[in-house]
Amino acid sequence: SRSALGPQEVLANADFGNSSENASATVLVRALSTLSLSLNASSANVSDAVLAKALLVLDNGKEMENRTLAFFLDGQPLGEALTDGDGAALLEIKVPENVSGKRELLASYAGEELVDASSANASLFVSSDLSDLVRVRISGLKPHYALGEPIAFSLEARDRDDRPLRASFDAVLADYGGE
After folding, report:
1. Tens-digit pLDDT profile for residues 4-42
2. Of the four listed, 77, 87, 159, 175, which is most buried by Cβ atoms within 10 Å?
3. How far apart are the C-alpha atoms of 62 and 6, rounded to whole Å?
């Protein structure tokens, strides 16, 4: 049977026919918490607002109300939100200007005396705002490549203030003109 949280006394009795032994011990019963995290979008642009929803429940399914959850993007604090009567906490996140690519969002519950801590992750793909793109430079290309030879190069992008922009690619398609 399920007992209450906190210190609980456990009793044991061993009967050996003509003799018996009793023993007791005190154990601390803690609840497990489960935290889930979802985003209203799987991708966003720099400066967009994304809504994060975290749900905190106990191992028996009971929602945890009025608990503080902390939110982080790539380990950097974004803010905190309180859970409501349904165990849900909402936080609107403005995507920072200095990030792009696949980012990790974390929601964290610190726990309390009789409830274990928990956390949950969600991924967000952030696209750079290319409206500030001023200059792109490709370097490291050779004048000629053999058929089937990998083509390696460096790509540098800079904004209006000559700050480097993060640039990445998964594949490059080449258009060969002529024969």
Report:
1. 878 888 888 888 778 888 888 888 888 899 999 999 998
2. 87
3. 17
Q: Which pair of tokens denotes residue 106?
A: 């974390």
Rg of the chain, C-alpha, whole Å? 28
- Report the alpha-carbon distance of residue 86 to residue 109 in Å, rounded: 15
Tokens, residue 152: 């390696």
Pairwise CA distance, residues 161 & 105, whole Å: 29
Residues 51-62 have pLDDT tens digits of 999 999 998 899
Tell me the one-letter amino acid at 108: S
Block residue for tokens 């500030």? 132
Q: Measure the CA–CA gap between 49 and 23, rounded to whole angstroms.
A: 59
CB-CB contact of 126 with 133 (8 Å)? no
Eight-class DSSP state of 66: S
pTM, entire model: 0.63
